[in-house]
Amino acid sequence: MHTQTCLKILSMNVTNIAHICSVDMQTQIALCKVHRKHLERKHFISRKHIIKSTFSFDVKSIVDYNNPTLNIFGRDALMLYASYFQRENISNQKRSFELLRLIDLDFSVSFCLLDLPPVNEYDMYIRNFGKINTKQAYVQWNEDNLDRGIQTDEIETQEKWTQHPGETALVSGGPKSSYDVTAITPKIDSQRLANFLRSACQVIEVLLEEDQVATQPRRNLRSRPSSLSISDRCFQLNTNLPFLNGRRISCLHISQAQRQALLSVHGLPETSNDLSLDSKYIICVWNVWQPSSPQKLLLCESQVTCCCFSPCKATLVFAGTVDGSVLVWDLRENSRMHQCVKVNETDWTFRSPTFSTDGVFTSINHACTVLTIEPVSTSVFKEQNCGFSYLSVQEEMLGLSFQIASMDENGTLSLWVTYVFLVYLFIYSISVASHRGHISPKDYTFLGVPQTLNIKFLPSNPNHFVVGTDAGLVSHGTRHELKVPPKWFKPQQGGPRATQINAIDFSPFGKPIFLVGCSDGSIRLHQMASELPLMQWNNSTAGQAVIALQWALTRPAVFFVLDATSVIYIWDLLENDLSPVAKQPIWSDK
């Protein structure tokens, strides 16, 4: 009976349940218990649904505030619902927590929801102006023409045709092109080519002359093995030329930069040769490797007393004359600028001076005969230059500028500062700096004022120079007129005497020592710091005057002496410091 009543209650809606609330309390409690047991046996309905379906009616409708019995039932029902729902909620949370540990989301698969690239300038331009009087069109340019570098040269080809046998005068030809019409001009340095040809011609001339000497022994001007005991070979210059016959040689000079270059000064001929050159003096420039003929011939109107080469290169020749002028020849000038004379079917070029001081520097020019002219050596030590040099180191090393010293018989010393500017092989200007120093010793008045004869500059310090006189004394001076001791270099006997200083030569090995050759045949060895000589030889030449002396360039203790009788003496101070170790007379060719 009770079971059937509960089944009927389940089929009712909420409004019908409100009418059941009028039954007694015991009946309602019994109905709830039966309904609960019945639902627990049915597992197809969840517990949460059971509670909600059982108590889905309005709680306020169950509670009747006017009936105390019904109020007690409402409170019990609410407490039952709350406790049961809390247990179900805790159970669900526990189960969901356990399931969450087993369940994890898979992030291995990803995809892009939106891909919007930035708009480039071209798209922006087309978006704004693409539809305004424009039309899109595709063109092709040289982008697909790819170049690849290769190491092989491109083969030049030309198209030609030919006909055989030829029926007309034209049997071959080809297309005309600008390459055929315009010839390629090669890049040629004419200056370098001229220098190379000049050097090559000299070498060829030397080889031809040696070959000619080998085939014609009579023309051998070099080898004389039996004539000289002091050397293996000598060079005999061929002065047997029509314009040199009968002319006496007054001066010889060897270039310090190029040892094969030699200058010889020839005076007027003793007899007339019916030539236009008989009234002029001649200076010959020789190459000792080609003794058959001079390399250059220089003409001078006045008598030449001294000469020298430029210090760095043997390209300029300086000469002093009896009228006090200084002459300069530039050997690099074109031969077509000078006089050409035919002598015995041979053309000879005679060069006139490139520069002369006549009438140019009248206030500082020499007023009497120029006795000596010397190139001033380049400063070796910078600390000894003393700021006096007018030239830069680069100019001195290149040979573009240098100094020449000339001294006349009055003792006037002039320094000529030379600036060489080469434009088409010409010297444009030569500046002059004059330095005058009259040498007149007051200590020796009984012989009068000594006459100066020659001058030499100290190689290690060209500010210092020594001057030979006719009183047997050597004067010491400086270019900037400072007083330096000693003032005079005297002989061992002391005091002046009537002896000329004919030759002076400094040691080429950097030592401040020099040799002095006198007219009485004595030879002295001086040092710059002492007044008296270190050594003196009085009777080495048997009283003959010493004409020239020179240190050897390879051995510091060896020097050579030439006396007035053309006898050469060889000294070796390490072997014998009392007398020469050898001597050789030079006989005349006549």
UniProtKB/TrEMBL annotation:
<dbReference type="GO" id="GO:0042073">
    <property type="term" value="P:intraciliary transport"/>
</dbReference>
<dbReference type="GO" id="GO:0045504">
    <property type="term" value="F:dynein heavy chain binding"/>
</dbReference>
<dbReference type="InterPro" id="IPR015943">
    <property type="entry name" value="WD40/YVTN_repeat-like_dom_sf"/>
</dbReference>
<dbReference type="InterPro" id="IPR019775">
    <property type="entry name" value="WD40_repeat_CS"/>
</dbReference>
<dbReference type="Pfam" id="PF00400">
    <property type="entry name" value="WD40"/>
</dbReference>
<keyword id="KW-1133">Transmembrane helix</keyword>
<keyword id="KW-0677">Repeat</keyword>
<keyword id="KW-0853">WD repeat</keyword>
<dbReference type="InterPro" id="IPR036322">
    <property type="entry name" value="WD40_repeat_dom_sf"/>
</dbReference>
<feature type="repeat" description="WD">
    <location>
        <begin position="316"/>
        <end position="339"/>
    </location>
</feature>
<feature type="transmembrane region" description="Helical">
    <location>
        <begin position="413"/>
        <end position="433"/>
    </location>
</feature>
<dbReference type="GO" id="GO:0045503">
    <property type="term" value="F:dynein light chain binding"/>
</dbReference>
<keyword id="KW-0472">Membrane</keyword>
<protein>
    <submittedName>
        <fullName>Dynein 2 intermediate chain 1</fullName>
    </submittedName>
</protein>
<dbReference type="GO" id="GO:0005868">
    <property type="term" value="C:cytoplasmic dynein complex"/>
</dbReference>
<keyword id="KW-0812">Transmembrane</keyword>
<dbReference type="InterPro" id="IPR042505">
    <property type="entry name" value="DYNC2I1"/>
</dbReference>
<dbReference type="InterPro" id="IPR001680">
    <property type="entry name" value="WD40_rpt"/>
</dbReference>
<dbReference type="GO" id="GO:0005929">
    <property type="term" value="C:cilium"/>
</dbReference>
